[in-house]
Write a structure and sequence with these properties.
alpha+beta; 2 domains; 3-stranded mixed beta sheet; 13 strands; binds cobalamin; binds iron/sulfur cluster
């Protein structure tokens, strides 16, 4: 449907979104998704790895009018998050992606989108809408681009002129016609700093990400074992990765007042129980990966620290009830140069019953020579 004055209504919706805490809101006309050919090609090349959910509801992903029948407009809203610097507090500290330092953005944005829809319904009582945040079948970045929020950077994230890329997105589909924004021009030019900064070479071409190599995928989405050759690239990252965003000149951390982040005690993370995990991360996006995957990542980071101080916590992790954790702890101990690591691996070899973990212990001992 068409409201009597789409332009005035659009301005009121934008003002309301701003009052709800979105720093930018853009509007696009609903239709076929931008760059749908790239999405098909990306899936075809298997770049999504184990994220099989991206193969499902493909028709909806490619056309929001199938997500909300009768959709006329796509409202895309951006919520910034603080981007503190990480202080160097020694080798036994881990880091998580900045978007996950605060409360779970899914809940915060969902709540704001619901309130935005309530507002629209007060203005146009017959309007219908559907909110999507991350998990919905909507290609949020391309829509953000079409809605004029910013441009798709070469790292594939959406970049705004004033706020860089330190933000999360939410989408509200509505069946009313609003005034669309003009798309933003590309702001990358000849720059390729994000591609050069990626530790694993996951950005295989400008705007094409092989997620299977991306540390964000490996630490958050991947359920099983992290491929051996990629483990060293985790460094001290235990949840997500910001390297491509840190490198972006649009994201300069200089001059920002977001403070310093101390990082997370790796031995403490490696020893987390289920109860401690729930208590500590229940309100964070980290809760989504579960205790075992976080501990898996922490033990890999302990191995990457190269520090003798990592041996004792890794020895304890060799007794973890999760075989996934024990297998990664064996690999990690194999990287520590100290005699204590050798002793702990030999002790574990004698008691381990899981064939896969035993294999890892054998490889770790053989690798030490
Ligand atoms: C799956 C997913 C991932 C996967 C895959 C990422 C990817 N680049 O596709 C993994 C787990 C790796 C991931 C990682 C991260 N993610 Co993520 N992720 C998603 C999710 C759920 C779907 C994205 C998707 O469909 N990807 C499939 C690809 C093919 O589609 P696409 O990236 O949208 O790509 C299109 C355009 O790039 C386009 N294109 C445009 N111009 C051009 C030009 C050329 C030449 C080409 C070839 C293509 C092209 O073609 C593509 C096809 O549509 C979205 C939420 C959503 N529902 O959209 C969040 C989302 C994209 N993620 C987000 C974030 C914050 C991250 C991380 C920064 C988290 C972190 N710190 O660890 C990293 C960044 C990694 C990176 N460099 O992209 C935010 C992005 C915010 C922003 N500023 O853009 C989103 C929107 C979530 C949210 N609601 O806030 N993520
Ligand atoms: S998030 Fe990290 S691993 Fe993934 S593309 Fe960016 S720099 Fe590379
Ligand atoms: S680092 Fe350079 S190429 Fe990459 S997104 Fe930022 S401006 Fe674009």
């Amino acid at each position: 449907m068409s409201p009597s004055n789409p332009s005035a209504l659009t301005a009121r919706i934008r003002a309301k979104a701003g009052a709800l805490g979105f720093f930018r809101t853009g509007i696009a006309r609903a239709g076929e998704a931008p760059h749908e050919d790239h999405f098909r090609a990306w899936l075809h090349r298997g770049f999504h790895g184990g994220m099989r959910y991206l193969e499902r509801r493909r028709a909806e992903r490619l056309d929001p009018r199938l997500v909300l029948p009768g959709a006329r407009s796509v409202i895309v809203a951006a919520m910034a998050y603080p981007a503190p610097r990480y202080a160097d507090r020694g080798p036994l500290r881990g880091r998580i992606a900045r978007y996950a330092l605060g409360e779970d953005y899914h809940k915060v944005i969902e709540d704001r989108i619901v309130r935005l829809l309530d507002f629209i319904r007060k203005e146009v009582p017959s309007a219908r809408g559907k909110g999507c945040v991350d998990a919905g079948p909507v290609l949020e970045k391309p829509w953000g681009g079409r809605a004029g929020l910013g441009w798709i950077g070469k790292h594939t994230l959406l970049v705004t002129r004033e706020g860089g890329s330190w933000f999360n997105l939410g989408v509200l589909l509505v069946d009313i016609e609003l005034e669309a924004d003009p798309p933003e021009a590309d702001g990358c030019g000849d720059c390729a700093r994000c591609i050069d900064a990626c530790p694993t070479g996951a950005i295989v071409a400008p705007r094409v990400l092989d997620a299977r190599r991306c540390l964000s995928y490996l630490t958050i989405e991947l359920r099983g074992a992290i491929p051996h050759p990629l483990r060293p690239f985790l460094g001290n990252r235990v949840f997500g990765c910001d390297a491509c965003q840190e490198a972006c000149p649009r994201n300069s951390l200089v001059g920002r007042s977001d403070g310093a982040e101390e990082g997370f005690d790796l031995p403490g993370l490696a020893a987390l129980t289920e109860e401690e995990f729930a208590a500590r991360f229940g309100r964070s996006p980290i809760v989504r990966i579960g205790r075992d995957r976080l501990v898996r990542n922490a033990v890999v980071a302990l191995g990457n620290s190269g520090s003798a101080g990592a041996a004792a916590p890794l020895g304890a992790a060799l007794k973890d009830r999760s075989a996934l954790v024990r297998a990664h702890a064996a690999w990690a101990l194999g990287r520590l140069p100290c005699a204590e690591a050798q002793r702990l691996l030999e002790a574990a070899r004698d008691r381990e019953r899981d064939p896969e973990v035993s294999g890892e212990i054998g490889m770790a001992l053989a690798g030490r020579g």
